[in-house]
Amino acid sequence: MTTMEEILQHLGDSTTILKKTEVNGGDINEAFHVQTERQAYFVKQNQNVPSHFFQVEARGLELIRDTGTVHVPEVYYYDTGSGSGDSYLVMEHIKKEASTPLLQQRLGERLARMHRTTGGGYGFHQATFVGELDQINEMVPSWVEYYRTYRLLPQFHLAEKNGRLPAGRRQRLSRLIERLDSFLPNDPGSSLLHGDLWGGNWIPGPDETPYLIDPSVLYGDRLMDLSFTELFGGYSGRFYDSYKQEAPLPDYYEEVKPLYQLFYLLVHLNLFGEAYGSPVDRILSHYIDTKG
Ligand code: ADP
Question: Which pTM was predicted?
Fold first, then answer.
């Protein structure tokens, strides 16, 4: 395994490491806060991820950074392990502060501005990851097609393989996927999305600056990002108010929200098991038994 000294030498810092602290909280990688004589770094390391794992994370961070809206940590260096499995990503260390109303407000308005960045269609140009699950992608002209073929169907097949689809769930989910075009707009407007916006993927940073981390970017309906923020919490009324002030929401937001949360719940069902089964079933009943 590559040592921290070697990693830092690769990016040109051969000064003494004064402190190296393991940071907990991530599901996937080993992470360290490293302080050298020169500066502080946040280093993620993993021996079991596909070789493009950190390249994809770095690319997502770069795309968000290029919008000039929400801050992201600067990426200094990544190594993809070239098949040896030992990959790492070195980035700016963000000192975590307490969340304040101003931070939430800034995050809301800056995310709304980020969502003004559009792609020439729906999807993404390369495969990404959601958690450590593969997320295959294409750029396609129809949002419904993208959401069906590249988001719901792969999770459906994985759940089936994992034995997470009892007959009723299987039937409703398959019907919902078939009838998706009656529940979702085909061309809602394509925005650059963070793609994995649970409350742990933003950091309240110094100077009341919010930072986004760990993206799983795509071009899609911005309501997908917002729906996920509402699933597990971590965002205050100030966040939503300032988002809406900057970019008002369409009337149908509440109608599509559970459908976007469904994708993330299926991912959780596949990663963490049946604890996520009942919220999945509630959403399926809502669309299929009452509307469909
Ligand atoms: P994983 O990729 O394994 O899910 P995370 O990116 O979620 O790991 O990071 C794990 C922990 O480190 C979280 O508590 C997160 O807030 C924190 N963290 C992530 N990136 C940075 C950073 N650039 N600076 C400081 N802390 C960070």
Answer: 0.95
Q: How far apart are CA 72 and CA 75, in angstroms?
A: 9
Beta-strand relationship, 209-212 and 202-205? antiparallel
Contact residues for 24 (Cβ-Cβ < 8 A; gap 6+): 31
At 86 the pLDDT is: 79
Distance 144 CA to ligand 1 centre (A): 32
Cα(119) to ligand 1 centroid in Å equals 27
Q: What is the pLDDT of residues 25-77, one digit of tens each?
A: 667 788 999 999 999 999 998 888 887 899 999 999 999 999 999 999 999 99
Exactly one of 196, 214, 221, 225 is catalytic; which is it?
A: 196
Q: 123: helix, coil or strand?
A: strand
- The correct answer on CATH 3.30.200.20 for the domain covering 4-92 is yes
Give the count of alpha carbons within 13 A of 166, CB side only: 8
Alpha helices (H) along the chain: 4-10, 53-66, 101-114, 143-146, 153-161, 167-178, 222-232, 237-246, 253-272, 277-288
Concerning whether 196 is annotated as a catalytic residue, the answer is yes
The class level of CATH for 101-290 reads alpha beta
- Give the pLDDT confidence of 219-240 residue by residue, as tens digits: 999 999 999 999 999 899 999 9
Nearest atom in ligand 1 to the alpha carbon of residue 57 is 2
The CATH 3.30.200.20 domain(s) of the chain lie at 4-92
Residue 187 has pLDDT above 70, yes or no: yes
